[in-house]
Amino acid sequence: MSDRAERRAALQRERAAALAERLDGLLQLNGDERALDVGAGTGAFAFAIAARVREVVAVEVDEELAERARLDAPANVEVVVADGEHLPFDRGEFDVAGTLRTLHHTHRPELMVAELARVTRPGGTILVVDQLAPADPLAGFELTRFEHARDPSTTRFLADADLRGLFDVNGLTLRRQQVDREPRDVDAYLDLAGCEGEERERVRSLVPQGYEAVIGWYVLART
Question: pTM of the full predicted structure?
Answer without folding.
Answer: 0.93
